[in-house]
Amino acid sequence: MTIEIGGPLLLVGAGKMGSAMAAGWLEQGLAPHDLIIQDPAPCDDALKLIDQHQLVSGEDPALPTPPAIIVLAVKPQMMAQILPALADKANEQTLFLSIAAGQNLKTLASHLGDKRPIVRAMPNTPACIGRGMSVACSNQYVLDAQVEHCITLLSAVGNIAWINDEAQMDAVTAVSGSGPAYLFALTECMALAGIKQGLDPKLAWKLAKTTLEGAGALMRHSTDNPVILRKNVTSPGGTTEAALEVLMGKKGLPKLMDKAIRAATLRSKELSGE
What we know:
- The chain is an alpha/beta fold.
- 50% of the residues lie in helices and 13% in strands.
- The chain is elongated.
């Protein structure tokens, strides 16, 4: 497999997420001479890629031609500072792909100029191991071929879904963008609860972590949906049923998760200035 996008790809921001994406692109066949990294202080993983593939990089690397795609993988608060200069490096055909949280298409366009093709994507942290979930949307200036390029690039680090209504991105952020933290929190709660029941702390943490890892792998490989998988573990009158009566009760996990997703969605709207 090869990744061909019709010109150079400029990756702006080489932190954990940016370097993970770059690694995925190179593994999937993007030619090293087509990847240019702009970052004054790349993370260690990015430095290894730069050295291994002899990538052009730096605080303001030279570009042979205007990039076909500029991927924005920097912190949201840096956008206003860097976007005008990046707009000068682009031409009318350059696609901007942003993975910065809280930066909607309108905000990005206000810094880049009118009629720029822009895609906004929300990946999550498992992209760092190639198991991410990304959701993307675009403005009206993005061509079909550019959509396909974005799907290829984002697929290199996991799964992707495309939506037409940008307003859904706030809920996307709440479910999948923030979602890994919910699972980590559940692992923490399970381990601490086990310790309270007398388990050795090392064993409790191992049990919680390994159980959730295994359950996630089972869910990935099973053709059954999570509801069926939950029922398969729950014997009538057994220990799992006793626990689920608490977790799934009136004040349990369904109500708490609804409140949590609503809170995260509202916060995403606030950060986007909506």
